[in-house]
């Protein structure tokens, strides 16, 4: 803004009505014009139709932020009407002011008046910031201003204030202020001297050096406050060493307490006082009321009168050791409800005001009282602002009481470790007698995730260039995580996502996708406001979190390539610990007296012991070693819900090595992302030749379905069959391998081998014997567990063999069916893959040679990032290599004898019936066979019903790929001639299965 001479108008924020509630970007620089929201009497009557009557001069909207800023600047530059229709906010007032200023600039151009940000901003008066926006008066003022008053390139005059008695070597960084702001008790205890530096700022690139060299103003300083001393004259030039004028002394010791006092040092050009101030030095003083034990650390106001929209403020020093305050507001009106708001505000160093501000809206019944609690920090000045709602008619009469309390845990953030058998927590009490009932409640599981991929690239767009055409870089991080239960998630990077405008990076955004790149949600700064609800899916590591960090320094981004992201998952039911003991013996044994209310006097401390959280309270399958529970500790009983919700202190409970984790029935010790199988109480086994051969056979069986070379797999199977002719796991593994290649190589011999091998498996498994075992009532007390275990294994093999057999028969029949079978069923639920792409040069050569049968490709845009390739034979494919069926043609069966032998419909019915006798109704495999069987009979509605159950990730359980399943549903609706549903599902398919991640 300074370099280009831009007039920048922004909102002052909506954090009011307390003082010092302005926020970025309006209050962060003096080069911008921050606009507050004004409410006039006409707006109340016409826009809001209220019965309440406000002051004739109007008021500031209660929500509009007020100055000064935390570094002493005025904060709010001007005010403008803050409403349109029934909407209201500083987001309404700032466009109003911006449009008015644009009209002012346009009039200046038309009248050939010099234009600069300094001239425009100098037209404001002191009220509601510098005043309510008055464009006509501002234009008349500019016409009377001499053209040579200041150079046109002057943007602003910047002030830097430092205390004289603060040594530069001992001064904390970033303590330079833009004004004088005395707020805390130690600041107002004695007079203070300040040194003020004045810096004229010129627009770069448009200013000749002569304008800077010739700039010189003889400045007269004036003020009206008797507690202020300052020089009367000084010379302002563009020479840096002369920008300092002498000391300014402020003596707040004689000012009334509990109020805010404001004054300014105004600088005028002695040669042109009518041109208005060259700059203003704002001085704000708050002298807080100091409470003592004699006051019971309590402040009370009786019969407080408030008109609609008006506020009453009081500044109180929170006693050392204060933790929270209890307020009560009683209405003295007997015939109507009183609507008001109570806001408390403190300024904490290096902390945004939104973290130290509390706002409560109260609706007080006639002659009734409302109570509440607010968290505070001891030793800081607290502003208590009580405001009557502007739409509530009549004058309110209130009795107000505010008391400080000082009971809390000794540490601000409790950190507990699950390896501890008892958790010792120290409580302290400072101000008054308290009765504590501490309770621990955990609502989130937190896990630190490390990126699986990190790339840095330069942004190519011109709009992504930094100041002075500096290159902007972006760091893209990808995180993988699984969701085992539906839950709400919060994703944060501590220390980075806690800030927006004040952030270290130029921008930070996060997006969550499924494994198919479907968009689920986005997160930015302040992640607590952006919870994302994620559902459980069948695939492990089924979600991707993509993080984008932007910065103009490549070296800075390199440092953050391994940055952790904290994933906070909300628990379906909180984990509570409401049993605390006075001794470590009671916490470890569960015996002894519990802390059913701890009476503590002022100055007393007490230790309380919480027992270890049993592992059976942890949600199964959610917590791993290295995670931590995030929660709060409250000091009130559950019957005091108001105090229980308001006064809470953060707690983290880190999970050590878990005793048992589900891992195929084995005990697992997990440390962060590493799992190590351990066996308790047993020494390492010594293996002989028999054990060696058994383990070797088991490993060979595991690898058999994964072997790609068919000849190698067949030779291995034949060799193993010679040694183990009736081994069911061996035959089942080979059957899975054959069935896995069936859709790709559905030859007659392959189908025959599958049927032959499945028959052999059923013979070896002795189907009738297994049926008799499970169909006979057996006395559990006399049941031989070894026999039962063997029968269960044989049953599983039978079900798997029948499923693979039925699936093979269905695919073979549908492949040669003469019916109008949907394409994906004819392909055995396999999405065809695209042939290798032809390079552009090869395509041109092929076109020039006019080769017969050459595919002519036309690219059509379907959606964002999606393209479809249309070939001469009518096949549609998108860029994900997935075939989109062409509905214009009816598929014809093949007569090639090399394909699968003819499977009759009767054989298909027999194979499906045998399998369905053994499976359950909602088994994913049974649903798939039901769908294929129904399609073979032309019952598309029944097939669609079965597949719709499979679209639920819980039911699918990884049986089918998501894209195959959704494609089948889409084709079935098309076969049923539900064209509108089919079109919707095809469009949804492009969204759920994207080619790339959604761009930022």
Write a compact overview of the structure shown:
By secondary structure, the protein is of the alpha+beta class. It contains 23 helices and 47 strands.
State the helical fraction: 25-40%
Q: What characterizes the major β-sheet?
A: 7 strands, mixed
The first-level CATH class of one domain is given as Alpha Beta
Number-wise, the strands total 47
The order of strands across the largest sheet is: 26-41-40-29-37-32-35
CATH architecture group name of one domain: 3-Layer(aba) Sandwich
How many helical stretches? Answer: 23
Rg of Cα set: 38 Å
Uncertain ranges: 123-127, 661-683, 832-900
Q: Which geometry do the CA atoms define? A: elongated
The CATH fourth-level homologous superfamily of one domain: Peptidase S8/S53 domain
Strand content: 25-35%
Task: Give the termini distance in whole angstroms.
Answer: 26 Å
> CATH topology of one domain, which one?
Rossmann fold
Q: Which class of secondary structure composition applies to the elements?
A: alpha+beta
Mean pLDDT: 79
